[in-house]
Amino acid sequence: MKNNRKASVAVRAALAASAALALSAAAPAAVAAPAADPHGLSCEKGKHNIDDYTGWALCTNVGSEPITFWVHLVCGWSPDVDGEHIRLAPGDSSQSTAHCSSLGSGIGEIQVRSS
Fold first, then answer.
1. Could you say which DSSP state residue 115 is in?
2. Residue-wise pLDDT tens digits, 55-88
3. Contact between residue 17 and residue 9 where contact means Cβ atoms under 8 Å apart
4. pTM for this model (two decimals)
5. Do 79 and 101 touch, CB atoms closer than 8 A?
6. Largest CB tally within 10 Å, which of 29, 64, 73, 115?
């Protein structure tokens, strides 16, 4: 009886270790924090409500100098695309949109770029 208990404890310990390894292997990798808005801009970004291939950035110039911005879409299997370049005076807001090719896998990331 004593040997059966030791064997049972050893089996349970092995199962627990195996389960812990399986769970750690299945855990998702750390996700990078979203990129900060370019200096002088405050932006909201997103995908179109009914079209997963169209992305947008709505930005406000919170700085004291004019700034040009555009949305940049990382499009998975198809080439990345940039939206129209928008020049904003201080305090102004506007939106830039772009569309990934429907032959690809859709939008993987939405970024805001400026010059």
1. -
2. 999 999 999 999 999 999 999 889 999 999 999 9
3. no
4. 0.68
5. yes
6. 73
